[in-house]
Amino acid sequence: MRRNLLTLLTLILILFLSILSKNLDPYIYQILVFYGINSILAVSLNLINGFTGQFSIGHAGFMAAGGYFSAALSVYQGEKLLNVLSFLPRDLAQGIIFLAFLIIGGLFAALLGLMIGIPTLRLKGDYLAIATLGFGEIIRVAILNLDLVGGPRGFPGIPKLTDITWVAFWAFIAVVVIYRIINSSHGRAIISIREDETASESMGINTTYYKVLAFSVGAFFAGIAGGLFAHYLMMLHPSSFTFMRSVEILLMIVLGGLGSITGSIFGAFVLTVLPEALRGFAHLRLIIYSLTLIIMMLVRPSGLMGNREISFYRLYKLLRRKGIS
């Protein structure tokens, strides 16, 4: 019953955001869209780094792969498919095509995650981090040399199909899917790998399978986030997917708390809003930004949430204990 209530409340929130977005200031609207995309990236990376205990810093590469692939489909095949679906209302047909292209882009990123994960996830610690960083850069450099998607000039002409409703919908899907994985028997196997991989193997858990599974699911949602990003900005450039982009996503989950979905969402919020709030400080912006992160890590090294979660049920119990409800 609680899960159904949470689903209903989330769907109502998505509908509310869709209606509210028409009256929002464009600047606030853009921040909310970027926050939603960052939440998808943070939650998906937390499945790999926080719950599985691996150390991946190539997430921007999967975001680039999914973004460029879905954008290329939209640019080169979008109008053709709209003509095929001309018997449907144009908005409905465009929505169906956009959904399909996002999923295909996500699956392409997941396939890359599978191809990269099988050989590299036998590594551990710093070696794994260096390997994933290398593969992320390989993806970016490959895009730089593809004239089909603009190469170093960038890839313009992408239709603007992303809005806050689409972002909220996919953020909800990402949270629900990863929450269900973690709270299943597969999730217990994944967490056991984080706690002690050797002990997990001795208990008969196929650690390579579960690490690759987490890596592929994380890459899929990174690809979805890339597709949403591409169809919002209407242009992609390889400079948007550098090593520093992967570090930003990593900072979100470290700040929010490794092993906490709620923490990922909080971390994404802080690191989306904080740089915007510091724009008025000009040259001091990066210094204040860095000091804030350092102080946070000194005061709260486990992150904002640690490995805990916030749920409507816990809030309800807390309010009852306080006599509020």
SSE arrangement:
Elements: H1 2-20, H2 26-51, H3 59-84, H4 90-120, H5 125-144, H6 164-182, H7 185-195, H8 197-202, H9 207-233, H10 243-256, H11 261-277, H12 285-299, H13 312-321
In round numbers, the mean pLDDT is: 84
Content of β-strand: under 5%
Q: How much helical structure, as a percent, in the residues?
A: over 70%
Distance between the amino and carboxyl termini: 19 Å
Largest sheet: none
Question: Could you give the order of the helices and strands?
Answer: HHHHHHHHHHHHH
Count of individual beta strands: 0
**Shape, principal axes of CA atoms:** globular
Radius of gyration from the alpha-carbon trace, in angstroms: 20 Å
Regions with pLDDT < 50 over 5+ consecutive residues? Answer: none
Helix count, DSSP H or I runs of 4 or more residues: 13
Structural class computed from helices and strand pairing = mainly alpha
